[in-house]
TrEMBL record:
It comes from Podarcis lilfordi. This is Dynein axonemal assembly factor 3. One of its GO terms (biological process) is axonemal dynein complex assembly. Residues 250-541 form the Dynein assembly factor 3 C-terminal domain. Required for the assembly of axonemal inner and outer dynein arms. Involved in preassembly of dyneins into complexes before their transport into cilia. Belongs to the DNAAF3 family. Pfam families: DUF4470, DUF4471. It is found in: Dynein axonemal particle.
Length: 576
């Protein structure tokens, strides 16, 4: 099989090799690739290849052909290759492995959702960590949790909603991110979750939550809600007294004044009515083209491969091809209503400094995930095993349906302090969008909010402040549980043990659900994480296979002592 690639006649600066490449047409690079397996003997795979300088001056061509380069090298004179040449070829093949799976940056530079399911952190926290809780002024045990890069508030909401299942504790969440847009979105989700049911019914609240979480386009009703909240959030960040009076759950006092000003600018952008300020359709397509490169035209097949060979292999079997491809192609993960979705979701916009004509200029665009999707956080696990049933090996429920059920159950439990039972629902009028679950309505707060919210507090910390936290006395030996996302593992330094309470639990999100990574890379990441946290004095806790996170505990313990107290998962995950 022979493939011809037009690269142009006016390429300047290419390092021409007249000896080996004089036969090549200057306007075309002829690449011959044997249709044989890569398992064929190495000498059979040697084919002509353009000089390195040509690819260096054509980055787009180099990107699209990087994977093939590893399997096609210039012919060497002589009967066989030297050992050094053999090793060089294999190194090139290893380097091209990431590109063969995509551009290697499908998860993007700005995370909008996590890459692991939501956790009840009280259920995941080790017993030894719970034994070292300090008492508050009211004599109630106080659990301090540090969330590094959780980005979407899923752990906060699930832990708060299931707090009634545990002995009473005051829970303080400290949220640390690397971008202010993530803080703004978490403020939006927290505000939506505690919205009084008299103002917004349970079903409408659940659908709005998922729309804002994972859709590039919104309904008019949802967009109007976002604009209303943006005006309210501007007052929150500019008037601390007003914020404490209306949302005492949240503490913004630790943010710098500069960060407050930037948050105000973000919320002003959210409330802008002009759809031309954020053309998400074009931005999504450009992001997808940049990610897939030459495979853009075959993106349907790429999507099928990533879903079946990557995500399903790690337990996300309930995600079907139709919904996954819809999200991959358009960015629309949740379409629950027969209504037009035509207004850009401006919460997915982020800013970056780009270099243009030698100068760094600010730009706003979409630099988020286009590989995994938002189904992982609420759509692949469920307490109700009937949601995970299969018929002839095919899941009976989609990830969208499971996500909607889980979010509805979470918001119901947060409001009524009792488990959600859809079979006992007193009102299933989906047409009205005002679904109410069965439960004791007298447990609602005076304003229709959850009564247990007074035992929780969410504190937003300054951006990227983890390396400096141990310098402040109030954070030293404070956190009983620390969660670190896979995108923020690099901030784990040996001094993190200075802010950890005795026997503290450390949860590190793994890269199981990143399609760009191969099995070997996922394994290497886990090993590097274990080595990195060991330098901080954390020891691993033996866990079951295929968990999307690793668990560690501060201090040197006997192996059996830790293994016996590993908490059981409260959710039932589908098998591989």
């Amino acid at each position: 099989m022979t493939q011809e690639l037009q690269v142009g006649n006016n390429v300047k600066g290419a390092e021409a090799d007249q000896g080996r490449f004089s036969h090549l047409n200057p306007g075309k690079c002829r690449l011959g690739i044997l249709p044989a397996s890569l398992q064929a003997p190495l000498p059979r795979r040697q084919r002509h290849w353009p000089p390195r300088g040509l690819l260096r001056h054509l980055p787009s061509l180099a990107h699209s052909l990087a994977a093939s380069r590893a399997a096609a090298r210039p012919i060497e004179r002589g009967p066989c290759l030297s050992r050094q040449r053999e090793e060089e070829w294999r190194r090139d093949l290893s380097r091209a492995a990431m590109t063969a799976a995509g551009s290697g940056n499908g998860f993007g530079t700005t995370a909008w959702w996590g890459f692991s399911p939501a956790l009840d952190l009280q259920a995941t926290c080790l017993e030894a960590s719970m034994e070292h809780l300090q008492l508050s002024q009211d004599g109630i045990p106080e659990l301090n949790i540090l969330l590094v890069g959780s980005v979407d508030g899923r752990h906060i909401l699930k832990t708060m909603s299931q707090a009634h299942r545990w002995p009473r504790r005051k829970i303080n969440f400290y949220v640390l991110e690397n971008n202010l847009e993530a803080l703004g979105r978490q403020l939006l989700f927290l505000s939506l979750a505690v919205e009084p049911l008299e103002k917004m019914g349970l079903q409408e609240k659940s659908e709005t939550f998922l729309e804002l979480m994972g859709n590039t386009l919104l309904r008019g009703q949802t967009a109007a809600y976002l604009q209303e909240k943006a005006n309210l959030f501007i007052r929150y960040v500019t008037d601390p007294d007003f914020q404490q009076a209306h949302l005492p759950l949240l503490d913004l006092s630790a943010l710098k004044f500069k960060e407050r000003d930037q948050l105000e600018a973000i919320f002003k952008f959210w409330r802008n009515h002009d759809p031309q300020t954020f053309q998400i359709k074009q931005l999504w397509d450009l992001r997808l083209r940049q990610y897939l490169g030459a495979r853009y035209d075959s993106r349907r097949g790429v999507c099928d491969w990533d879903l079946n060979m990557k995500l399903h292999e790690h337990g996300a079997n309930v995600i079907n091809f139709r919904e996954f491809y819809r999200w991959r192609d358009t960015g629309m993960a949740f379409e629950m209503r027969e209504a037009p979705y035509d207004i850009p979701n401006k919460t997915l916009a982020s800013g970056r400094l780009l270099r243009h004509k030698g100068e760094r200029v600010p730009a706003r665009g979409y630099w988020g995930d286009v590989a995994t999707g938002p189904y992982i956080i609420f759509g692949i696990e469920a307490e109700d095993p009937s949601l995970l049933k299969t018929t002839n090996g095919i899941p009976s429920k989609s990830a969208q349906e499971i996500s909607l059920h889980n979010v509805t159950a979470l918001l119901y439990e947060l409001s009524y302090n009792t488990r959600y039972d859809p079979s006992a629902s007193s009102d299933e009028e989906g047409m009205s969008g005002n679904l109410q679950g069965a439960g004791d309505h007298s447990k609602l707060g005076a304003n229709g909010g959850p009564p247990s919210i007074e035992d929780a507090r969410v504190c937003f910390l300054p951006l990227n402040c983890l390396p400096e936290l141990h310098h402040k006395g109030k954070y030293q030996q404070l956190f009983n549980l620390i969660f670190v996302s896979c995108s923020m593992v690099h901030v784990l330094k040996p001094n993190v043990n200075l802010i950890a309470a005795p026997k503290a639990t450390l949860i590190v999100e793994l890269t199981n659900f990143l399609p760009d990574l191969h099995k070997e890379q996922v394994s290497v990441f886990s090993s590097q994480v274990a080595k990195q946290v060991a330098e901080a004095g954390f020891v691993p806790v033996q866990a079951a296979d295929k968990r999307p996170f690793s668990l560690f505990q501060l201090g040197h313990q006997e192996a059996g002592e830790i293994c016996n107290e590993f908490p059981a998962l409260e959710m039932t995950a589908p098998g591989p």
